[in-house]
Specification:
This protein is an alpha+beta fold. It is 42% helix and 15% strand.
Length: 434
C-alpha cells in the first residue's frame, strides 16, 4: 500500500499497562519497529534502598497484581543467599506450592480472558463467553482455585503478606489445605480438558529461530531454583546471570530492554522456553498431554504459547495436589538469620518467564542496592524482532487489521507492562512507496 499512513491504538487491550508501538514502512518493506513504552518509571528498586530487608517481600509484591508471588519468591531467595540462610525441605516445598497457586491463577486468566479471544476474532472474554460459555466459566473457576490457594498460604490473594525472609510468618493449617483438594482434583481434569481445547485452535504458520532461556533443575520442573539454561546450549549459574544477559536503555522506552552478551542478541523467556528446556520433567499427566498435543518440540511458534501455558496449568495442579496430600505443619515456619554486609541474587520462573533479583545489604540489615530484571523487560527486544518478521504477512489489509494482528502477536507474550514499566498505542508510518 503506497502513501503515508498512520494507525493509532490508544491502549492495547487485554494486557496490563500502557505504551506504544511505532512501525515505519517504505511501501510494504518494514524499516523499523519500536515498542514505545512511555509511562514514567515506577522506581521500585529506588524505593527499596534504605529499607529494612524484612520490608522487601511486601514492597516487591506490589510490582504486579497478577504475579506478586514471583517477586516475593525471587526477592526472598536472593536475600537468603546474601544472609547464608538455608531453607528447610518443608519450607522449600511449601514455597513451590505457593508458586503453583500463582501459575494456576495467572495461566487460567491469560488463556481464557486475554489470549483465547484472539483466535475467534472477538474483543474480550465476555464476547468469547457468548460462543464458549462452558469453557470460559471453567476458566474462571480454575483462576479462583489459584486465588484460594494464595489466600491460604499468603494471607490474601492479591499482594500476599505471609511470605518472609527465612520462610513464612505463619504456617498454614493442614485442614485448610485439605479443604482445597476436592476442587483441585476437579481442576486437574478441567485443566487437561482446557489444554486439549486450546490445542485445537487455528495457529498462524509463524516460527522463529528463538534462543529460549529458562531455569533448569536436575530433579524437578524448575520454578524456584536452578541454573539459567538456553536452547542454544549455554548453562550458567544464577550468580553469573549478569555476565551473560544485560539490561540496556533504548531512547523510545522508559523500560529497560535485555539482551545476550556479547552478541547483543534477543532471547525469549516464558512458558515456551520452560517447555522447550524442561518438558521431560513435567508431572505425569502433563507429560503425557505434551506428547498428545500436535506440537513439534522444541516449539518456536509464539502463538502456540497458549498450549504451553495449558500444560503448565496441568502440571501446577498435579504438583499442588501432591504437596497438599503430604503436607505436615511447619515448626518453626521461619529460619532465623543475622544481618550482615553482604550481597545475593536469585532467579525464579514467574508465569511470564525468568525473573532475576540482586540485592546488597549493610550490617544493619538495610538494602543498599537492588536490581530487578522482569520477564517482560527481557522479552521486549524479542517482541520487536517478532513484529518485524510478522508484519510483512499482515500488511495486505487495512490499518485496523494490521493493528489487530500486531496486538495479537504481542499478547502471545502475556506482557505485564506494569512490571517492565507499561504498554500500547500503535503508530504506523508507511512513508512513500519506492
Amino acid at each position: 500500500m503506497s502513501g503515508p499512513r498512520t494507525v493509532k491504538i490508544e491502549a492495547l487491550t487485554r494486557v496490563e499497562g500502557e505504551g506504544g508501538l511505532y512501525v515505519q514502512l517504505d511501501g510494504n518493506h518494514v524499516e523499523d519497529v519500536k515498542l514505545s513504552i512511555y509511562e514514567p518509571p515506577r522506581v521500585f528498586e529506588a524505593f527499596l534502598r534504605g529499607r529494612p530487608l524484612e520490608d522487601v517481600p511486601d514492597i516487591t509484591a506490589r510490582i504486579c497484581g497478577i504475579c506478586p508471588i514471583a517477586y516475593q519468591m525471587s526477592c526472598v531467595h536472593a536475600l537468603e543467599a546474601a544472609l547464608g540462610v538455608t531453607m528447610s525441605p518443608e519450607i522449600r516445598l511449601l514455597r513451590r506450592l505457593l508458586y503453583c497457586g500463582e501459575w494456576i491463577e495467572s495461566h487460567a486468566l491469560h488463556m481464557h480472558l486475554l489470549h483465547a479471544p484472539d483466535f475467534f476474532g472477538v474483543d474480550s472474554g465476555i464476547e468469547l463467553a457468548d460462543q464458549f460459555p462452558d469453557e470460559v466459566t471453567r476458566g474462571l473457576r480454575l483462576k479462583k482455585h489459584g486465588n484460594e490457594l494464595l489466600e491460604v498460604l499468603g494471607g490474601r490473594a492479591i499482594h500476599p503478606i505471609n511470605v518472609a525472609v527465612g520462610g513464612f510468618y505463619k504456617a498454614p493449617e493442614k485442614d485448610d489445605l485439605l479443604r482445597l483438594l476436592p476442587d483441585f482434583d476437579w481442576g486437574l481434569e478441567a485443566a487437561i480438558a482446557t489444554t486439549r481445547w486450546v490445542a485445537t485452535f487455528d495457529f498462524p504458520d509463524f516460527t522463529r529461530d528463538y534462543d529460549t532461556v529458562a531455569l533448569q533443575h536436575p530433579d524437578e520442573y524448575a520454578m524456584n531454583e536452578g541454573r539459567v539454561a538456553s536452547t542454544r546450549g549455554a548453562v550458567v549459574a544464577v550468580e553469573d546471570y549478569e555476565q551473560h544477559y544485560e539490561e540496556f536503555h533504548v531512547e523510545h522506552s522508559t523500560a529497560l530492554h535485555s539482551r545476550r552478551t556479547p552478541d547483543h542478541a534477543s532471547y525469549h523467556v516464558g512458558p515456551l522456553a520452560r517447555l522447550n528446556l524442561n518438558r521431560e520433567q513435567l508431572a505425569p499427566a502433563a507429560r503425557r498431554l505434551a506428547d498428545e498435543v500436535d506440537i513439534d518440540w522444541p516449539c518456536r511458534n509464539p502463538f502456540q504459547s497458549i498450549i504451553a501455558r495449558g500444560l503448565e496449568l496441568v502440571h501446577a495442579y498435579e504438583e499442588a495436589i501432591s504437596i497438599i496430600r503430604q503436607y505436615k505443619p511447619l515448626s518453626p515456619s521461619r529460619t532465623p538469620y543475622d544481618a550482615r554486609t553482604s550481597s545475593g541474587c536469585a532467579a525464579t520462573e514467574a508465569p511470564r518467564g525468568l525473573l532475576y533479583h540482586r540485592y546488597q545489604i549493610d550490617d544493619a540489615g538495610k538494602i543498599t542496592f537492588a536490581k530487578i530484571a522482569p520477564p517482560t523487560s527481557q522479552n521486549q527486544q524479542q517482541i520487536e524482532a517478532d513484529l518485524h518478521a510478522w508484519l510483512p504477512s499482515i500488511l495486505n489489509g487495512d490499518d485496523d487489521h494490521t493493528a489487530m494482528q500486531c496486538e495479537r502477536l504481542v499478547r502471545c507474550y502475556d506482557p505485564c507492562i506494569s512490571c517492565a514499566t507499561h504498554f500500547l498505542k500503535l503508530t504506523v508510518d508507511r512513508g512513500e512507496s519506492a
